Amino acid sequence: MASPSHLDTFVSDYEFFEYDGFDIMYKELNKRLEKYIDSWEEEMKNSEKEEQVKEVKNSLSLILEQKEKQFEMKKKEFVMKNQGQKVEIIEERDDIKVLKDVMRMKKMEEEHWEKELQTARKIRKTDFRHYYKMVTKIKKVSEERARIGAK
User: Fold this and answer.
1) What range does the domain containing 50 cover?
2) pTM for this prediction
3) Which of 95, 103, 60, 66 is nearest to 87 (CA)?
4) Helices (runs of H) and strands (runs of E) counted in the chain
5) Rounded-to-integer distance, Cα 55 and Cα 132, Å
């Protein structure tokens, strides 16, 4: 395997690269690395959004649970109290319906961001495979040149 200092001699001698397209391979390698970095950043952004949605969903879940408990308590009290509380109970029931609808929407949003995150991970992995193949190819060419130069 070529040492890093050995590779530096190839990198510093630009004219040597121009002859058989070695400079083109390095340009391609840099493009692959940039694509990999971009896909990694996209994955991190999607992961962040997914976490935010999960936090909101968990908060809404707690609020919904509290509202449902309050509703059940008021429903029991209603049996013992007058009609005036019926309006409050209806409003609470409507609040619960709205919260459940919001929870459904947040769940759909969470699933969306989960899919986006999976897609971003696949893209990043593909970009890394292409980058790794270019590194391997450049390493082989460098070793071949070193072997030829040693003769």
Assistant:
1) 4-150
2) 0.52
3) 95
4) 4, 0
5) 36
